[in-house]
Write a structure and sequence with these properties.
single chain; seven-stranded mixed beta sheet; 43% helix
Length: 737
């Protein structure tokens, strides 16, 4: 049996837990040839509905001599094709892939040429013509997505494609400060980025928790501030070269003047306030959303993110400039991210010397002082040939217009920053650590100034009073659409993954496949917005990424086996139709258990439950008249009902016991679904009142984490799990009226 077929059957077994469901939903996804599950969707595509057999593999013929980089790209393509379609059958002629590419002196920059055309035809082979090396990489990624497995063997869908991206900057941000990630883990993300046409890795390398790069000029940074968990300079160069081979730029971030505890632990003489020792920071409670450590008995608070540099000391600027110069040699990209976010004003306002300096130099407040400091950092980076990036706080006061603003607190900052003439990268709406499903991110357009923000009526909720800091996240109902000049300043977007609650083992599943859906938002036309179609394609793209190197499912199985070695099925079933609570509600739960949450069922459950998405889609179709779908839905619901008794036998630890109520509720919700499918018998007033109470409990749980404001205040399930089949059961109950 071909390796791809073995993987396909495992994937389909996990996604479709019965033969009836396989026939109802999953069968066409393997053998269908009328459409191709491409992600991102190309600018222009024509599918003939015909296929080309590729059991003999694909042989590349280059027009001219390829560069070493392109030759390696061809070798990766051939290796991945073998992973997807199986090794070429001896004696069967390969299909010829003709590749031509123009030289591009702007490769690995925001000006690089990414356009390509791809033709796949039985009578002419495959032709890939690209305007530059980036176009070759993108065309090869698209070609792999045209591979399908049929009963007759592997094929390529015939297609004619003309493709180029909507935005030049299409990235993810990976935080390795809070939880260190291995070089191998980072490389896996780069491989998946190449296959989904993402081209920037924003590497967040320092924060309150740790400094993660070897510094030879300031070695205390990695020894003291990095706690000896860091990348050597040789490893950094290796990762940068690995990324460049895949058409990916790496933009480093070393956060100043706030979020600087790891730097100031090493060099406390540069701090605005006393830097507490490890002993001074040993409080019983651990980490919350802001990494606040508190002692419930003495009410002392220390925020690991608050520590800030003293910007009034000349040696502070000299230190940062020297550090940035050293790091800049490791990262050749012109863009350099200096952070600038969440600077706690008290760090400066509670320092008499800084207050006197501000008064002497006419700075009205801490933001004004920060703006002047930001300008100094920008000048230092410019002298080194770098373009400065900063989070959107840096745009709240006058700063040089060439500073790139990363809009993260809401879409209104895209409007204000571009109005001030700043280039902008948009991350608001794409935060992966919010644990919202792919559909939520997919509906956010980077240039819509009203796409993301807290409604005004939500600002006073949470703790029952208005929080002034929340104003920065508020939706601006009067925001005007970007004009043509402003739209030109939007370079693109990034999907950040902060790692307070992400271990090395969890990265693949927390980053993917949602990043693939976001990649489509950054690449494809704004009119590509069909959520249901995206959700149809997403499991297939995830499968391709898993088959070619990602290890999310492997790690998931390992985590389940570690938690329930006696019987993996009950936890597997439970986590297949649940997802984590959203909008940092999980961080609140982790404030009590800390890193223990990284080994709980909620660390296994994905933000997108493909089983639940399939069930919910079937329920909607059933209510619309496809009554034959009752058979696979009953089989799924019976499985969830029966699973609770099995789960009770394996829930032998506190973290597993925390999830027992969710297991019970899943059985209860599934029972309601089964009752709704019983041809409306006995569905009187009392039945509807009972089932509505059952579903209301679940609706309240979803509502309690619907925004970051309510998630800070409302109770959350101790397990941190949501039951994702609730919308489908609602549809069945409504149909039973």
């Amino acid at each position: 049996m071909l390796p791809f077929l073995r993987r396909s059957r495992r994937f389909l077994h996990n996604a479709c837990s019965s033969m009836a469901l396989l026939a109802a939903l999953c069968g066409p996804a393997v053998a269908a040839t009328s459409s191709a599950p491409l992600m991102p969707q190309p600018r222009v595509i024509t599918l003939s509905g015909q296929d080309i057999p590729v059991s003999g593999g694909v042989r590349i013929e280059w027009a001219g001599k390829p560069t070493p980089m392109l030759r390696r790209a061809g070798e990766r393509f051939s290796a991945r094709l073998a992973m997807l379609a199986g090794r070429p059958v001896p004696g069967v002629a390969p299909v010829v892939l003709h590749i031509s590419s123009q030289p591009d002196p702007t490769y690995l920059s925001v000006q690089e040429r990414e356009h390509y055309t791809l033709g796949v035809a039985a009578n002419g082979g495959i032709h890939l013509d690209a305007d530059g090396p980036a176009g070759v990489l993108h065309g090869l990624a698209t070609l792999l997505q045209l591979v399908a497995l049929t009963p007759q063997g592997p094929v390529l869908h015939e297609a004619s494609i003309d493709d180029a991206p909507r935005f030049a900057w299409r990235g993810v941000m990976l935080d390795v400060s809070r939880h260190f990630m291995s070089v191998e883990t980072v490389k896996r993300q780069l491989d998946a980025m190449e296959l989904t046409k993402l081209n920037v890795l924003h590497w967040h390398l320092s924060d309150g928790t740790g400094f993660r790069v070897e510094s030879r000029r300031f070695p205390r940074l990695q020894r003291v501030g990095g706690h000896n968990q860091y990348y050597t300079q040789a490893q950094v160069r290796q990762v940068v070269a690995y990324a460049a081979d895949r058409g990916i730029r790496i933009v480093p971030e070393f956060d100043v003047p706030g979020h600087a505890l790891s730097l100031l632990e090493a060099y406390p003489e540069l701090a605005a306030q006393h830097v507490p020792s490890e002993e001074e920071r040993k409080y019983p409670c651990t980490i919350t959303i802001n990494q606040v450590r508190t002692d419930a008995n003495c009410n002392k608070v220390y925020n690991l993110n608050n520590a800030a540099f003293d910007p009034t000391k000349p040696q502070t600027l000299r230190f940062i400039s020297a550090l940035y110069e050293e790091m800049g040699h490791l990262f050749p990209d012109r863009y350099f991210h200096s952070g600038g976010d969440e600077v706690a004003s008290r760090q400066w306002n509670d320092n008499p010397a800084i207050v006197a300096y501000m008064k002497q130099h006419g700075f009205a407040d801490a933001p004004a002082l920060q703006a002047a400091f930001t300008a100094q950092i920008e000048h230092a980076l410019a002298r080194q040939g770098k373009i400065m990036m900063g989070w959107d706080e840096v745009s709240e006061a006058p700063i040089p217009s060439n500073v790139v603003v990363e809009a993260w607190r809401g879409s209104k900052w895209v409007q204000s920053a571009t109005a001030a003439g700043h280039p902008v990268v948009v991350s608001s709406g794409y935060y992966l650590d919010l644990l919202t499903p792919a559909a939520t991110h997919y509906q956010v357009d980077p240039i819509d100034p009203k796409a993301v923000g807290l409604p005004q009526d939500a600002l006073g909720k949470g703790h029952g009073r208005h929080r002034p800091a929340a104003d920065a996240f508020a939706l601006d109902p009067d925001a005007k659409p970007l004009d043509a000049a402003q739209r030109q300043l939007v370079l693109g977007g990034e999907a950040p993954l902060w790692s307070e609650l992400v271990s090395d083992e969890m990265v693949d599943a927390r980053m993917w496949p949602r990043s693939a859906a976001i990649a489509e938002r950054f690449w494809s036309d704004a009119s590509v917005r069909d959520v249901a179609d995206m959700e149809r394609r997403l499991p297939l793209i995830e499968h391709e990424l898993e088959a070619t190197g990602l290890q999310a499912r492997v790690h998931e199985k390992e985590m389940i086996a570690r938690l329930t070695p006696q019987n993996v099925t009950p936890l597997t079933v439970l986590t297949s139709v649940t997802s984590p609570v959203r909008n940092y509600a999980l961080n609140r739960l982790a404030s009590r258990s800390g890193d223990a949450m990284l080994n709980a069922p909620v660390a296994i459950a994905a933000p997108d439950s493909f089983d639940a998405i399939a069930f919910n889609a079937m329920a909607a179709r059933y209510a619309a008249g496809e009554k034959e779908l009752a058979v696979p839905m009953r089989e799924m619901l019976r499985r969830y009902v029966a699973n609770d008794a099995a789960y009770a036998t394996v829930a032998t630890t506190p973290l597993l016991q925390d999830a027992r109520p969710v297991s019970q509720q899943l059985a209860e919700v599934a029972t309601v679904g089964l009752e709704a499918l019983r041809k409306h018998k006995g569905h009187g007033h009392h039945w509807h009142r009972r089932v509505n109470r059952v579903l209301a409990v679940q609706d309240a749980t979803f509502a309690a984490c619907a925004t970051s404001v309510v998630a800070r205040a409302r109770p959350q399930p101790p397990s941190g799990l949501l039951i994702d089949i609730v919308p489908g059961v609602h549809a069945l109950v409504n149909h039973a009226h």
